[in-house]
């Protein structure tokens, strides 16, 4: 007997035990509503998705072709449509996640209006978006199951009924893991813990935290990034772990992000107790002048002992200290090893370009110490992918002795090069980037932080250009609606997508034949 049939049997007994007062309650309808609301709390979702993500991590360790992917979504509807599309095109949601981008929350969800990615938005907007995303994903489950129930009711053939019943019994939920951005924790370790709890209670199974200073936090692709000593960052990793454990999500995932590759500054000199400890290693990267005595110290100078010598670190007018030029890769490797050795599960290395060789160089060094180290990687829209990969091909050809005299390396973005062999090879490298990087650079999860920010702008531009121009209404019909119909976009029936059919089902459950339904023959949605 299936779980659905078991629930019907259970509710049948419950109704019988309640007596005649519950005579109007249908055990089958109750079973349907229970199945349409599989996840009762955010913690149910967090545990379910943590189990999925842990299984996916193990699968990747065994076979690097089993990497995972996600797209950043700034609204529950966008996340819902993404998962509906994935199920339509691929038949399953397996290995497909959602990414919650702090950048998009700042730009699109703050009560202050659009903000830069500098942790100025309300911290409560982070768990609020997680809850919103899962509300829409759960509604997608209810909508699809409601359609299957209607098909089951309409089926007259036993074989057809069995086929539909199998789809119900093996239903693939739209609820998938969310990797959620907590920025630098929005304050001290206690503030990080409190916010992490809210995020987990909303459903997050994976929390990404970065090693920047909270009050100086910058987008990973902006200048002026300032990192913190390892002890400060590890305290926040511990805070997130305690939040997971307190809420019963023992296998929650922590993604430790390092911005050290592009961060040339620190706000603090690390505390060190003995030569070679973590604080001493952090301080060894400071840029400055070796001095011999007090005569080399001016008023207000700071001096530290590092590598057995007195160092006067270079201090900027802002009070920040500067790292040695060219030390970024070494700091990244130290950051990553330290994070994995102190409770992090996955790494995030923010880079300035998408280059498999560059990422692999760092990951290989990390794996000398932590063999199963693996990354979450930002396939960022901040990269000019076309120019980057055309230049990579140009450089490879030049190194191989191939004639590149017909190309201007600085101008390779030009459409004049689109049909060239160089451009075609670059596009092929872009196409295979995720598989190549998963295989060669330890990337378990590929994401794009803010793709739906760009797609919303692009589609709106196209519609505005046509609708307000000579095309008029044809701009919408040809550019949107006709494509929706022919591509099988479920949202063309927008009343259904917004829940009208679910509401009609409930009206029938509650009122029987007296129900006043919205989906009758005069509903214009029936034109589709």
Automatic annotation (TrEMBL):
<dbReference type="GO" id="GO:0019752">
    <property type="term" value="P:carboxylic acid metabolic process"/>
</dbReference>
<dbReference type="GO" id="GO:0004451">
    <property type="term" value="F:isocitrate lyase activity"/>
</dbReference>
<keyword id="KW-0479">Metal-binding</keyword>
<dbReference type="GO" id="GO:0046872">
    <property type="term" value="F:metal ion binding"/>
</dbReference>
<keyword id="KW-0456">Lyase</keyword>
<dbReference type="InterPro" id="IPR006254">
    <property type="entry name" value="Isocitrate_lyase"/>
</dbReference>
<keyword id="KW-0460">Magnesium</keyword>
<protein>
    <recommendedName>
        <fullName>Isocitrate lyase</fullName>
    </recommendedName>
</protein>
<dbReference type="InterPro" id="IPR039556">
    <property type="entry name" value="ICL/PEPM"/>
</dbReference>
<dbReference type="InterPro" id="IPR015813">
    <property type="entry name" value="Pyrv/PenolPyrv_kinase-like_dom"/>
</dbReference>
<dbReference type="InterPro" id="IPR040442">
    <property type="entry name" value="Pyrv_kinase-like_dom_sf"/>
</dbReference>
<dbReference type="Pfam" id="PF00463">
    <property type="entry name" value="ICL"/>
</dbReference>
<feature type="active site" description="Proton acceptor">
    <location>
        <position position="219"/>
    </location>
</feature>
<feature type="binding site">
    <location>
        <position position="181"/>
    </location>
    <ligand>
        <name>Mg(2+)</name>
    </ligand>
</feature>
């Amino acid at each position: 007997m299936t779980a659905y049939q078991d629930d019907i049997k259970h509710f049948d007994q419950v109704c019988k035990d309640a007596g005649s007062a519950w005579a109007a309650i249908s055990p089958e309808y109750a079973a349907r509503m229970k199945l349409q609301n599989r996840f009762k709390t955010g913690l149910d979702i967090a545990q379910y998705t943590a189990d999925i993500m842990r299984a996916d991590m193990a699968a990747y360790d065994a076979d690097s072709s089993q990497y995972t992917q996600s797209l950043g979504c700034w609204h529950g509807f966008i996340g819902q449509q993404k998962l509906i599309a994935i199920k339509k095109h691929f038949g399953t949601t397996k290995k497909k996640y959602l990414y919650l981008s702090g950048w998009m929350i700042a730009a699109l969800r703050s009560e202050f209006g659009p903000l830069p990615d500098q942790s100025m938005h309300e911290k409560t907007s982070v768990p609020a978006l997680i809850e919103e995303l899962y509300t829409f994903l759960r509604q997608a489950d209810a909508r699809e199951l409601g359609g299957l129930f209607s098909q089951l009711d309409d089926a007259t053939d036993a074989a057809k009924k069995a086929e539909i019943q199998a789809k119900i019994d093996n239903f693939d939920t739209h609820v998938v893991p969310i990797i959620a951005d907590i920025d630098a924790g929005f304050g001290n370790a206690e503030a990080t813990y409190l916010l992490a709890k809210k995020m987990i209670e909303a459903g997050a199974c994976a929390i990404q935290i970065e090693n920047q200073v909270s009050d100086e936090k910058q987008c990973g692709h902006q200048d002026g990034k300032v990192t913190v000593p390892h002890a400060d960052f590890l305290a926040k990793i511990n805070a997130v772990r305690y939040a997971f454990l307190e809420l019963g999500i023992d296998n929650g995932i922590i993604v430790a992000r390092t911005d050290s590759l592009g961060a040339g500054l620190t706000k603090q000199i690390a505390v060190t107790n003995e030569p070679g400890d973590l604080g001493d290693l952090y301080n060894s990267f400071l840029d400055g002048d070796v001095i011999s005595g007090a005569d080399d110290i001016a008023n207000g100078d700071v001096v530290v002992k590092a590598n057995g010598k007195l160092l006067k670190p270079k201090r900027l007018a802002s009070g920040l200290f500067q790292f040695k030029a060219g030390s970024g890769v070494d700091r990244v490797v130290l950051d990553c090893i330290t994070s994995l050795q102190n409770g992090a599960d996955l790494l995030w290395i923010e880079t300035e370009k998408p280059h498999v060789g560059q990422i692999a160089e760092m990951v290989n060094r990390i794996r000398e110490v932590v063999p199963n180290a693996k990354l979450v990687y930002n396939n960022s829209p901040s990269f000019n992918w076309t120019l980057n990969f055309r230049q990579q091909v140009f450089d490879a050809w030049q190194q191989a002795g191939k004639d590149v005299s017909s190309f201007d390396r600085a101008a390779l973005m030009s459409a004049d090069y689109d049909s060239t062999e160089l451009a075609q090879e670059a596009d092929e490298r872009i196409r295979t980037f995720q598989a190549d990087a998963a295989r060669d650079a330890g990337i378990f999860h590929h994401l794009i932080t803010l793709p739906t920010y760009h797609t919303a702008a692009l589609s709106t531009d196209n519609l505005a250009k046509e609708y307000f121009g000579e095309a008029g209404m044809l701009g919408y019909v040809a550019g949107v609606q006709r494509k929706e119909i022919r591509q099988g976009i479920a949202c063309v029936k927008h009343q259904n997508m917004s829940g009208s059919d679910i509401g009609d089902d409930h009206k029938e459950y509650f009122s029987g034949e007296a129900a006043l339904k919205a989906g009758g023959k005069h509903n214009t949605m029936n034109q589709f």
